[in-house]
Structure formats: C-alpha cells, structure tokens
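Quarterly update, task 2.4: D-xylitol-5-phosphate-bound model.
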Amino acid sequence: MTIQPDFISPSILSADFARLGEEVDNVLKSGADMVHFDVMDNHYVPNLTIGPLVCEALRNHGVTAEIDVHLMVKPVDRIIPDFAKAGASYITFHPESSEHIDRSLQLIRDNGCKSGLVFNPATSLDVLDYVMDKVDMILLMSVNPGFGGQTFIPQTLTKLRQVRQRIDESGLAIRLEVDGGVKVDNIAEIKAGGADTFVAGSAIFGAANQNDPNHYDSVLNAFRKQLA
Ligand code: DX5
Ligand code: ZN
C-alpha cells in the first residue's frame, strides 16, 4: 500500500478574483500544498468560472505549486490540451462529461499531466473497475458540484472507505481527494475515512482580515493540527 502525504488544496473559487495572484501567493505561503482550480461551464454545472487563460496567468505570475484543475465542463477533450499548455498539473473530470472516459484519461497523460476522475455524490464507482491504472487521482465530491460554501454530505464517508480499499488493493500511488464542505471540524473524520488530499474553499478564503498577508496561517494551522 502506497501512503501519500496529506495535501491541502485550497479552492480558489472562494478567493478574491480581483486579487487572485496575491491570494494564491498568500495561501501557499501559509502552507497550502497545491491550488484547486474549479472550471465551470454553465452547462455541465449551473455556474461559470475560469479557464486556461487564468491558469496561465497564475503560472506567469510565478506560481510553481501544483495546480489541480477540476473540470466541471462538458465535453472535456477539447479543453484538455489547452489546460496542459496553460500549466495544469492534475486534470480531473466527471465520467458523465466524457463519451469516452478511457480516451479522455489517456489524453490527459499524453499531454503530460496527471489524470483523475471525479465522482458526484450519487455517481457509482463502477468505471474504476476498468481504469485504475489510468488515474493518478480519484476525487470524491462531498457536495453537488457548482458552488462553494455548501454542506458536507455525510454519506461521502462510506464511499470514501470503498475508494480507499480499491486504491489499497491496486497497490498504485493514487491520490484520494475530497471536495466540498471540508472544514476544520470534519477534516479529521475525512482523513480517517481514507482521504489524503483535502479541498477547502470557503473554509480557507472565507477567513477574515484580507489585508494581513499571513491571514491564512491560522486556518491552515488549524487544518494541520486536525490532520496530525
Ligand atoms: C464545487 C467545487 C469546490 C468548491 C468547494 O463544485 O468543486 O471545489 O469550491 O468549496 P467549499 O470548500 O466552500 O465547499
Ligand atoms: Zn472542485
């Protein structure tokens, strides 16, 4: 069994978009491990966010941390090479949004990125039977995708244990990420369920005092304490 170190991946969906570079710098300086980048298209999900230009802008700004691109768009294949060129590290997508899941996963790796599948709360894990060797990350949604600030769906914990078992049985180094409603008071339970990668948007960027460059220290320290 391959154990991955715990990663905290702040979702910039809840950051101040008018000061995005600075927000990302500050959250990384406070100890975040990577940057969760939510891409929404007003088609697969009822919201519209950011695309490859913004990813590239963060790279040009000097961000060197891994960028964890979560595609909530349909279709996915057209946009995958664009995100790879824009500096994405991981590219994950929802199985419902691709006609050819195996092909899309291969396309991500062929473009030099790490690949992953995202499962909505009511989406079955069955496709994993056939593609475990083609994913570097499995992302479990603990809310329905489209918006930040929603409440964690507790049934995710049962599904999380099922995915943990699949990963352990595979012997592969696959990250297990949870996204939605992750807070200081439930992150320990989510880790106990088998997650090693934790997305948090509103819990981090909702923290007050935006003018203090160290203002994300306390929330990230609180997360770390829970994970220890
Ligand atoms: C929801 C997004 C999440 C969202 C999480 O569709 O995928 O990444 O930003 O936000 P919080 O942590 O506020 O639930
Ligand atoms: Zn996300």
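Highlight for this quarter: Residues 7-227 form a domain with the TIM Barrel fold (CATH 3.20.20.70).
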